[in-house]
Amino acid sequence: MTEIPVSAPAPVPADTEGQARSFWAKAWQRLRKNSLAMGSLVYLCLMVLACTFGPMLVPNSYDKIFQGYTRVPASLSAYPRPEMIGPAIEAAAGRARLDLVDWAQTGDRVTAHLQSTRGVDPRAARYFDRSDMLENSTLDPTSQTEAVLTARIERHHFLFGTDATGRDLLARTLIAGRISLSIGFLAGLVAMVIGVLYGAISGFAGGRVDQIMMRIVDVLYSLPFIFFVIMLVVFFGRNFLLMFVAVGAVLWLDMARIVRGQTLSLRRREFVAAAEALGVSWFQILFRHIVPNLLGPVIVFMTLLVPNVIILESFLSYLGFGVQEPMSSWGILIAQGARAMPSAIWMLIFPSLFLTSTLFALNFLGDGLRDALDPRDA
Amino acid sequence: MLRYAFWRMMTAVPTLFVVVTLSFFMIRIAPGGPFDQERALDPVIRANLERTYHLDLPLVQQYGIYLKNLLHGDLGPSFTMPEFSVAELLHAGLPVSIRIGGLALLLALILGGAMGVIAALYRDGWADRAVVGFATAGSTIPTFVVAPLFQLVFALGLNWLPVGGWNDGAFHNLIGPVICLMLPQLAVVARLMRSSMIEALHTHHIRTARAMGLSEAAVVGRHALRSALLPVVSYAGPAAAALMTGSVVVETVFSIPGIGRYFVDAALNRDYTVVMGAVVVLAVFTILFNLIVDIAYTLVDPRVRYD
Amino acid sequence: MTADHHTPLLSVEALSVHYATDGGETCAVRDVSFRIEPGETVAIVGESGSGKSQSMIAAMGLLPHNGRATGRIAFRGDDLLRLNPQALRTLRGAEISMIFQEPMTSLDPLYRIGEQIMEPILRHRRVGRRAARARALEMLRQVHMPDPERQMRAYPHELSGGQRQRVMIAMALANNPSLLIADEPTTALDVTIQAEIIALIAELQRKNGMGVIFITHDLGLVRHIADRVYVMHRGEVVETGTVGAIFERPQHPYTRALLDAAPRGRKIPVAADAEPLLTARGLRVSFSTGRRRIEVLHGLDLTVRQGETLGIVGESGSGKSTLARAILRLVDAEGEISFEGQRLDGLSPRALRPFRSRIQVVFQDPFGALSPHMTAGQIVTEGLRVHRPAQSARDRDEQAVLALREVGLPPETRHRYIHEFSGGQRQRIAIARALILKPRLLILDEPTSALDRMVQKQVIDLLRDLQQRHGMSYVFVSHDLAAVRAVADRVLVMKDGTLVEEGPVDQVLSAPDAAYTRALIAAAFMDVA
């Protein structure tokens, strides 16, 4: 019988790029096509940069209290506003036990006439410097009971306004983002490490060990979740470092379940049996065959985990279990904003905007990664 | 079925025991106590108080006393609100939480279910996009952001609703808390329903039903919907337990006297008995609703049999 | 075709089916035409991906939302593609019925059997529930369902695959359709059940006088029931004719290849005095599920001699794959295993390692047996890393090239990732991975079952060729008797974890002792009337 043409081996697929592409290269390529996910990735990078370096770059420190500017609204123009200067001078004069006769403003400078029946001490100028609106004050006595104050107007920008104690909300939102994001990522990492180790061991060991380990997870699941976290936080104290351990230690349960399920099913796959038949040691099988295949689901779950951690951290902070003043986190700022309603809406709006936009970006990135790493429909 | 329910109840006892034990020791190991206030109490008064509440005994003995009382249904007195017993606090707060949580869950299941089905039937259409967008927003924006914003818009801005308060559960007072509690659940249910409906519509038995010329209503309603309900049913159990045992955020924002708030205040003040009471209630609810879900599951899916 | 006045039952003219995918539109069916007369049985034969099912799914209006059909599908003159959905629904299940490949999932798991058969009856006939129930019961009797009264109240999961397919047939025929489309109705079933279902369809076709379109990948299957055959390849009809003409005078090379696809030839027998290579005595395997232990292998003995191929046949669930894994010590087994005179049972994984290079394995599923994320070269050389750790990377690479060449793959494929290969190519890589260690014994666990008929033949030819070149012994596990006949010296028939029959392959397959073996052979070679 002659060789039939159709029975020749099918041609090896020619690669369009001219080189073989690994699973990860293809996943990255798919992700790059997803503009929403890529946009979210860029946004998240910007957010991380802003929260890391922003607090150093913004003019006001997050913990500096401007007594003259409690709850001032967000504004693009500089403070103080003209109508705020008079009362400020009057208040400072009052503290210095002086009476304000009149005052005038020329450009950045103010001059004021003050008087006191007890005489004017030039050192009283410090009372005016202490107000957040004036600087370089000098008090020149013109007679026994009168003096002329000259001072520069201190300009401050509060792009996001200030909070109830007069701290710059922009600086606070950024520093809070630093806390929220780092707790999110670190606690996510803690949860991932515990979850992956626990799940992989349970799934890989199988049998009785697996049953016992999963039973423990079941019991931990039935523990009232929020209570558990609150107890941990109470137990550990309000400590930033321990806070994320507490959050991470609770959220590892889902990760452990997912990893265990994946490991179990990977173990049953024939390529693991083939490796075993080749004499590959269990350790090598774990690292050459199981772990690389676990990476995809773990990464996808991480993108779900991180927003969950951030929400949980914000929630705990909202309840008052979080980091302590003057440190802050988005949850704390939102709680303060909610309390300041309706007079200081910006205190609620800006932290909420930062938190939700970050959560949205993480979600979109997670969806994009899921599609890129698990192309079931393709 | 009855035997199964009984067996499940029996296996719930050890779980409950573990939960109670773990919680008891964890809260006790935590530093601080109910009588550590800003100003130190007189040592004699403090000793008296501790004796009354058995706090002077070794921890294991306290635990024994607590377990014994618990078996008799006695949850003990509140430490920080001595005029109330824990049972009284729960009796006051629980109906409020159940009412809000139950309403929120019911609405979430009905509305979310309908949204999910519509999205799945008109997949990739505008209705689907709207539902998916809504579900993403609903599950992304935390309640503690939604609730104050809701208040800002509907109570303070438009003046349609009261800012808060319970007012014996008057309709106007219910709207805000129920909606805020419902939104994230609605999002989850809609998303779950959509994906399980899409999956159900792709099964082979739906193709069979179509191939037999059944009407679209029968295909969707009788065959697809019933399979698609299963994941939603299993979600509803834990969700019901979580919702009906009180939401701290919603109860705080809307000033509602549910048990969620008691619980958090108690944890902050180390009011041991109140915390334990809340834990027991939450655990019992979780076990109960999981049981109900399992039984509901057997009614929908004949493949699941508990004998 | 002459232009006479009769209308065929169904005529398909210039049908094309396109799918919209991420990478643009793909064509599943291209410009296909065929017809079927009332009472006729027509087979559409082709391999997976040939578009044979797509044309019929288009005719039923069941294409998924990204599918689009053009052309004309006329049922008694009415174009189904232009019919409104309502009118199409009144035809489906009443005039045209369809049964599917997947009996396990084609019934709704949540409703009772009776209920599901009654549904299309109530939908298409003006009868009450009582009459519908009676009709459903009658249909269950017609499809020879045992104890039909009781099965009416059963749920699908309580039935076997074959029984479920009977229910599907009962459902499809309940309204006496004039056309039945059977889409691979037996592919998912065991061979003995396959034969029964085909006989049933043939019987009901005669009784009801309906037209039957039988879609299958197995040309041999339709020889006894089809009047005419259409052969489809890559979305096009490449040949058509009566069964007799197709089988006797195939014109198109593809048809010839399909007919020839059943592996032919015999293995050159081994010398009678060949030394035993592997012996196993009293192999028992049990698995624990929860509290119970279930024994799946009840004490099996076997011997494989140098250069010999031992075939192991049996239906799914017979324990033949478990036996293969027990020999490889991939599952825990009781009993003795000796290889080249040395005992393997009881050896620790470490002590077992030197033997691993001499006993190798090729699994059934070419998609599951190779690690994704790895290149062909990495997969092929994995064994070398274990057994020749001192070898340089360059030597390894050279050996990979040799091994790939030996299985008929060009050397540059070693840099490609596994997802870029077809099923047959993957199976070649799996064989190369085993070969590179120069094993004495190769365990082949259904190595061809997941492959298309044509590729199967190539892989079997390759295996025979390699055996001759290297003098290896094979244990060839398969449910495919034709494949076993082509490669084995001796054969072992298994059922429910026990040995049914053992002997030289020609003797067992031509003159079987056991009734079970006879049934298996009858079904496999379609000697049923």
Structural class based on helices, strands and sheet pairing of chain A: alpha+beta
CATH superfamily of the largest domain in chain A: MetI-like
Taking all residues together, what is the mean pLDDT of chain A?
A: 77
* SS field, number of helical segments of chain C: 20
In which order are the strands of the major sheet of chain C placed? Answer: 6-7-8-3-9-10
Overall 3D shape of chain A: elongated
Rg of Cα set of chain A: 31 Å
Could you tell me the mean pLDDT of chain C?
85
Q: What portion of residues of chain C is helical?
A: 25-40%
Strand order of the largest sheet of chain A: 1-2-4-3
Distance between the termini of chain A: 41 Å
Q: Would you tell me which CATH topology of the largest domain in chain A applies?
A: MetI-like fold
CATH class category of the largest domain in chain A? Mainly Alpha
Helical content of chain A stands at: 55-70%
**Strand residues, percent of chain A:** 5-15%
| Poorly predicted sequence stretches spanning 5 or more consecutive residues of chain C | none
User: What's the shape of chain C?
Assistant: globular
